[in-house]
Design brief:
The complex is a heterodimer of chains A (314) and B (429). Chain A is mostly helical and 314 residues long. Helix content of chain A is 80%, strand content 0%. Chain A has a single domain (12-279), classed as MetI-like fold (Orthogonal Bundle). Chain B is of the alpha/beta class and 429 residues long. Classes of the chains: A mainly alpha (314), B alpha/beta (429).
């Protein structure tokens, strides 16, 4: 051992307490806003009778994927009711929805920024790595200090953890848009905003939606950790069963998380490909025309590889 | 060169990629070669200068990596020129702010892309109206304009389809219609037909020429296909390793290549479709004016050992051909009117006829093909051997290749005897 000791932790702790002292008011405001958002969503989900929520979820499922998914949704959610985890599940769903929405609202503009500027991309990427790999418990600590026990530090920790794939896949999607089509926009004199709105975002939509899907799934995976800081819901049930070594409760709560996860995953994945009613409502207006106009193409493309196939020069 | 202002003018354009592009350009200006600056970066375009006249199809031709795609992207500012200037219809697009550049692109220059670059989520009609939409035209007006354009490029019935439902050729028609709808004077086409299969490509080339004649656009066309360049181009710029090595009409490039590179390049071109009658024709020797009479005709036949001579009128227009037996009979019967024995067997072609159209008549007749100007004047002749030599890229400029005329069907003695007799009878002209 050497006498040398880098007091990195102490400095960060000092910084956090400085932030707490100086900007305490700001964080109280943020806390109030997050809490209010959560309460509203939770109220919407938890106050109606369970069957109303199940019917709505089944209808969404039908629009997104068809009647089989609708049936599966109804059965799955009914299992949650029958193991008496319905209210906890709705609390968790509210937390996941609020956290995901925040993460998406933050990550898509960040992704766009990273896609348009390689400097921004170089700065953002290591920060994302840091946020994703730093164990979630670690930033739960300052979150607890700043936002006090309850659902808000859970939301904040979830947002930080779930942000990365949203940013990454948005950047990837926009950078992956056919360069020639972007050039076409430029060549006809379109502004950058117009190119983003009319070309890049629509064409990157499947990738961005895959990012949204990942954000939601990661949010769900954070519920147990959120449960530890008093966010309630299924997470709190898992934590309680762990403390009591209660296998029965643990399994029921865990299964409820899995059912929610499958429902959200399949639902959001269907939005990405634009092949369903719900997917179309979200984006592709043009898809509506697909049904109406399509005589068979007479000379359907058989495109040989361009360039380099022709006159070979000595 | 005409005296009108060029539709597009490029002066000393350089484009270099690398850490210090301007240093690369300075070195190139000082005389370094492209290979010598590779350690600093890539010189994609080196000192390119040209004018494109209004209504002209200007083809830039070169293989992959010759810098042609970089060059065309500098012409509308998709890439900034490292040095040099581009002027389109009087507006400079080099060194101007983005807003001004966008304005020029909206009003003066549009582009057609190799892989069509259509917006896949928009219908054909909305794709075609895209340029107009950016120009700020109202929805009803731009849809109307786009509908007209759908018909112009032959896509009736497809207006409401999505690009993905169309074949490659049809998609590129949409790309072309989008560029034409924007109603700019200058059209840039970047390997526009290279991704299409050969039959569709030929069809598109023909349609492009048709449209250009109708609409009078100035077109700058990039291609790696020499036959395409020769077919479309009023003038062709050949690029190699970032430099323009020759600019000229297709025939100039073919018949007078600036260097070995161009010569080698044009070796495989379908010469029959590029070369015209006027570029291979030879001076007509076996030709006499109508007024010269049968004796003069017979004398020329004897001298050139041929059985037929072309006859011209007073205004030097081609009247027809006389054959040796007819002439001999006339001389013997002491007549003087060549018109009476004139035959109209010779194939007559205009000066700009392509060689491909001359092969069949040449095979079907023993006479050389007569080439006439717009006013009907006999400009020259193309004997079969000359045609074959031109198609086979054998040099015809040397005098070694004899001008072959239909051989005499009479023996020299008979002609000489007849001439002697007629002279003694006192036929003095």
């Amino acid at each position: 051992m050497t006498d040398f000791r880098l007091d990195l932790g102490t400095w960060v702790a000092g910084f956090i307490s400085f932030v707490t002292d100086t900007f305490g008011g700001v964080f109280d405001v943020i806390r109030a806003i997050f809490l209010a958002a959560y309460d509203v969503v939770d109220l919407l989900l938890a106050s109606p009778p369970f069957w109303v929520v199940i019917v709505i979820a089944a209808i969404l499922g039908y629009l997104a994927r068809g009647w089989r998914f609708a049936l599966g949704t109804a059965v799955g959610l009914f299992v949650i009711v029958s193991v008496d985890q319905w209210e906890n599940a709705m609390d968790t769903l509210a937390l996941v929805l609020v956290a995901s929405l925040l993460a998406i609202v933050l990550s898509i503009p960040l992704g766009i920024w990273a896609a348009t500027s390689s400097v921004a991309s170089r700065i953002i990427r290591p920060i994302l790595d840091f946020m994703q790999t730093m164990p979630a418990f670690v930033y739960l600590i300052p979150a607890l200090i700043l936002f006090r026990v309850g659902v808000v530090p859970g939301i904040v920790a979830t947002v930080i953890f779930a942000l990365a794939p949203g940013v990454r896949l948005t950047e990837l999607g926009i950078r992956g848009v056919d360069k020639e089509i972007v050039e076409a926009g430029q060549a006809f004199g379109a502004s950058r905003w117009r190119i983003l709105r009319q070309i890049q975002l629509p064409l990157a939509r499947p990738t961005i939606m895959a990012g949204v899907n990942q954000v939601i799934m990661l949010s769900l995976s954070m519920v147990v950790i959120a449960g530890m800081v008093g966010a309630g819901g299924l997470g709190a049930q898992v934590v309680a069963s762990l403390n009591r070594i209660d296998v029965a409760l643990g399994f029921e709560a865990g299964l409820s998380v899995v059912i929610l996860a499958i429902f959200l995953d399949r639902l959001t994945a269907a939005l990405g490909d634009g092949e369903t009613v719900l997917g179309r409502m979200l984006g592709a207006r043009a898809a509506r025309r697909r049904a109406s106009a399509a005589p068979a193409a007479p000379e359907r493309a058989a495109e040989p590889a361009p360039e380099r196939t022709e006159p070979a020069l000595v | 060169m005409t005296l009108t202002t060029p539709a597009l003018k490029a002066e000393h354009l350089y484009k270099a990629f690398g850490r210090r592009p301007s240093e690369i350009v300075d070195r190139l200006r000082a005389g370094s070669t492209r290979a010598e600056v590779t350690s600093l970066g890539t010189a994609a375009v080196i000192d390119a200068s040209f004018d494109v006249q209004p209504g002209e199809i200007f083809v830039v031709m070169g293989l992959s990596g010759s810098g042609k795609s970089t060059l065309i992207r500098m012409l509308n500012g998709l890439l900034d020129a490292t040095s040099g200037s581009v002027t389109i219809g009087g507006s400079s697009i080099t060194g101007v702010p983005q807003a001004k550049l966008r304005e020029v692109r909206r009003q003066k220059v549009s582009m057609v892309f190799q892989h069509f670059a259509l917006l896949p989520h928009r219908s054909v009609i909305d794709n075609i109206a895209y340029g107009l939409e950016i120009q700020g035209m109202s929805k009803t007006e731009r849809t109307q304009r786009a509908r007209d354009m759908v018909a112009t490029v032959g896509l009736d019935g497809w207006a409401d389809s999505l690009p993905g439902e169309l074949s490659g050729g049809m998609q590129q028609r949409v790309g072309l219609a989008r560029a034409l709808a924007a109603d700019t004077d200058v059209l840039l086409m970047d390997e526009a037909f290279s991704a299409l299969d050969p039959l569709i490509r030929r069809e598109m080339q023909e349609q492009l020429i048709e449209l250009q004649q109708k609409l009078g656009k100035t077109i700058i066309f990039i291609t790696h296909d020499l036959n395409e360049a020769m077919f479309l181009g009023d003038r062709i710029a050949v690029m190699r390793d970032g430099r323009i090595v020759q600019i000229g009409t297709p025939e100039e490039i073919l018949t007078d290549p600036a260097n070995d590179y161009v010569a080698q390049f044009v070796q495989d071109v379908d010469r029959a479709r590029v070369l015209t009658a006027s570029s291979v024709m030879e001076q007509a020797k076996a030709v006499i004016p109508m007024s010269a009479g049968p004796r003069a005709a017979l004398r020329i036949m004897r001298d050139l050992q041929t059985s037929a001579v072309f006859v011209t009128r007073r205004d030097r227009s081609l009247a027809g051909v006389v054959r040796d037996r007819d002439v001999l009979r006339q001389v013997k019967s002491n007549q003087n009117d060549l018109e009476a024995i004139l035959r109209h067997e010779a194939t007559v072609v205009p000066a700009d006829a392509h060689l491909v159209d001359l092969v069949e008549p040449s095979v079907g007749s023993d006479l050389p093909i007569a080439v006439v100007g717009d006013d009907g004047r006999l400009l020259g002749v193309i004997p079969r051997v000359t045609l074959l030599a031109a198609l086979g890229n054998v040099s015809t400029s040397t005098a070694d290749v004899p001008v072959q005329l239909p051989p005499t069907t009479l023996t020299l003695e008979v002609i000489a005897e007849t001439l002697r007799e007629s002279t003694t009878e006192g036929a003095v002209r």
